[in-house]
Amino acid sequence: MNSSNADLTTILNRILDTAADNLRIAKILTMLGLDPNNVTYDAIFNRLLEVALSQITLANMFALLGSIFFVVTLLTRTMVPLRIANMISNIFFVAFGALASDIKTFLLYLLLVPINAIRLYQMQRLVKKARDATKGDKSMEWLKPFMTERKFRKGSKLFKKGDVANEMFLTITGKFRVMEFNIDLPPGSLMGELGFLTPNNKRTATIECVEDGQVLSIEYDKLLEIYFQNPEFGYYFLILTSQRLLENNAKLEATVAELKAASAAANRP
Questions:
Q1: Count of CB atoms within 10 A of residue 189's CB?
Q2: Contact present, 220 and 167 (Cβ < 8 Å)
């Protein structure tokens, strides 16, 4: 037992001695090509300058630029500029891999370029569709890539007024009815978006499936994620939702006016 402890102590002492020897200033200076007995600030500066200049190659310059743009991606808060900076960084690293004959680096960043390009295109398309929607195109089909397919049978309720809301829907097929107003929603209609904006995330109406249909759903957490990734999208989405709210209010006012007119006509002698 004592012999084992002695052997372990000997091994640890040798490791510490070797590490201390490798960390000695004299040895470090020798490795840098300096004379430990004649060290000056000028000699250190000139040697470091020589080492730096010897490393300045086109491949290393591309690697440096790639690293700079990679750091930019870490400092960027929104998704579109982040994707652009990441693509530029990837291109510089691809060039480095090609010039340095580093096949692993070359293939890795070459694969990342189209991935970032596709994501950037999707985000830009999302913003464009949202902007178009505020100018008259009320279709919400541009959200489809972020939504999940669901099916409902006749008589089933998607949600009831007062329920806690955590997702919104886009009708694809079938027929759905707003029970409070007896309004049928055709394919392409958005349902449940107002619950996203209410303070307590409560449903403002009851939606029932009156004909077997299919919808796409997206959770509010996903909407928030898209919003924070690209605030411009969130801005246009809020405008679109506000427009829909005003339209619903106008329909309600028209219905109330019709009921008042009908009541007045019935009370006439």
A1: 20
A2: yes
